[in-house]
Structures are given as structure tokens and as C-alpha cells.
Design goal:
There is one protein chain. Helices cover about 50% and strands about 15% of the residues. By secondary structure, the chain is of the alpha/beta class. The protein has a single domain, classed as NAD(P)-binding Rossmann-like Domain (Rossmann fold, 3-Layer(aba) Sandwich). A seven-stranded parallel beta sheet has the order 3-2-1-4-5-6-7, with helices on both faces. The protein is globular, with a radius of gyration of 18 Å. It holds the Pfam family adh_short. Keywords: NADP, Oxidoreductase.
């Protein structure tokens, strides 16, 4: 059995990956989708051309990993693509968020970093020659970001982990791509709150286009997928300019 696995598939980028992957991989038998909201996962079945196997659960708890582990051991599938799309962010200073939502920043680290790593380790034995791992990072990974401090730090972890893992797996012809979009028009901002910088509203991207670009870049075995000229310029700027200068620019623009 050839499958793809998508976390965070109930909304946003994860849902869009679950919709587009069947057209990217023609030989898949099923897509296994993971998220907390079962009704959202069920509704996917009417959208796609492949069967979706649902794993409802919170990636910050053990049960969903146990359920997936059991299914993997029973089916022994060939995972052609793993997409780690689950994650969330919160805007505001570290102190403000800690006062407003005391646990949210630790939970952000747990979901964005620990859960992504745990899911990758669980699936890795079933990813064969030519398989792909796609990790949702962010353009926020390129540089520390005031008013997005913990979120940006978690995405820096995702980017670094993805690139190192990709180097380790290259000899096995397994390719890892970190997807680093700027702002994407999804439910993400319903949770995170308003963007800290007004200019980010002007570069809001369509999730369908971002995912299509990511899948094309994955096909090309790219380490990093960045959508759009503005975010590509931001990546270049973060490489060239001292991070202190970028931080000062960001801090005085929100």
C-alpha cells in the first residue's frame, strides 16, 4: 500500500496538501489525515479522488501516535510523502502572551517542534526510496522576530531540522523540503491574532498557490520552498543583513 500522511489536515495548509497530493502522486492508494477536528477530516472525503483514513487526535497527547503506530505496524505501508503541517502561532510580546495565555507559548513549542519531530521519527521507517518529507516552516524562520518571538524560533527549528535530516537521508534517496511561506490566507490568523506588521497584509498569499509551489519544489528535491518574490527577497535579506539590523527594522515597524 502506498500512502501519504498529512498532519493538521483539518484546515489551512494541511487541508490543502491533503487535497492536492492525489494529483501530485498518481500511484497512491490512500491518504492518512490527522487532526483534532474529526468532522473537518470527514468532510475531506467528498473533495478528493482517493480514500482518506482518519486519525483523530491531539498531537500534543500520546493516543494519536499510538493509533498511528498500530496502523503502520499492521499495514506496513510505503509512505510516499509525509507532510507535517500541524502548528500554530501567537502574536504579541513574550510577556504579553504569557500574561494573556500562560500556557500557549510552551504549547507552541510542543506542537511546532516536538510533535513534528515525533511524527517524523514514527514514520521514517516506512518511508522508502524516493519518498518525501515536507515540513511546514515559515519565512519567520529566517530571522528572530519581535512580537512573534516563540513562533519564529519554533520555525527556525523546523528549518534547521529539515535541512540536516535531508542531508542525512539523501544517500537513501529520501528528500526533505522545508516550506517557508510568508503570510498565507488561512485560519492561522484567527488563532494567532493580527499580524504585527501592516506590510504583511499586502503580501498575503493564496494557500492553493503556496501548496502547489511547495509540491513542485518537492518534486525538484529542493531543500527549501519559498513562495513569491517578496518572501524570496526577505530570505536573501536575512542572509545578507546582520540579524540585529533586521530585528530593529521589524521592531520599529509594528
Amino acid at each position: 500500500m502506498k500512502i501519504a500522511i498529512v498532519t493538521g489536515a483539518s484546515a489551512g495548509m494541511g487541508r490543502e496538501f491533503a487535497r492536492q497530493i492525489p494529483y501530485f502522486y498518481k500511484g497512491l492508494d490512500e491518504i492518512w489525515v490527522i487532526a483534532r477536528r474529526r468532522e473537518r477530516l470527514v468532510s475531506l472525503s467528498g473533495d478528493g479522488v482517493l480514500p482518506y483514513r482518519i486519525f483523530q487526535g491531539d498531537l500534543q497527547k500520546d493516543q494519536v501516535y499510538q493509533d498511528l503506530d498500530q496502523a503502520l505496524k499492521e499495514e506496513k505501508p510505503d509512505i510516499r510523502m509525509l507532510v507535517n503541517a500541524a502548528g500554530f502561532g501567537k502574536t504579541g510580546s513574550v510577556k504579553e502572551i504569557a500574561y494573556r495565555e500562560p500556557d500557549s507559548q510552551v504549547e507552541m513549542i510542543d506542537l511546532n517542534c516536538r510533535a513534528l519531530t515525533r511524527m517524523t521519527l514514527l514514520c521514517l521507517p516506512y518511508i522508502k526510496f524516493g519518498g518525501r518529507i515536507v515540513n511546514l516552516a515559515s519565512a519567520a524562520a529566517f530571522c528572530p522576530q519581535p512580537s512573534f518571538a516563540v513562533y519564529a524560533a519554533t520555525k527556525s527549528y523546523v528549518l534547521s531540522f529539515s535541512r540536516a535530516l535531508g542531508a542525512e537521508l539523501k544517500s537513501q534517496r529520501i528528500y526533505v523540503t522545508a516550506v517557508c511561506p510568508g503570510p498565507v490566507d488561512t485560519e492561522f490568523f484567527d488563532v494567532s491574532g493580527r499580524l504585527p506588521n501592516m506590510w504583511k497584509d499586502a503580501v498575503m498569499a493564496d494557500p492553493k498557490r503556496v501548496v502547489k509551489r511547495a509540491l513542485l519544489d518537492t518534486r525538484k528535491k529542493k531543500e527549501v520552498s519559498v513562495y513569491g518574490p517578496v518572501m524570496k527577497a526577505a530570505r536573501l535579506g536575512a542572509k545578507i543583513l546582520p540579524h540585529r539590523a533586521v530585528i530593529e527594522f521589524i521592531f520599529h515597524k509594528h
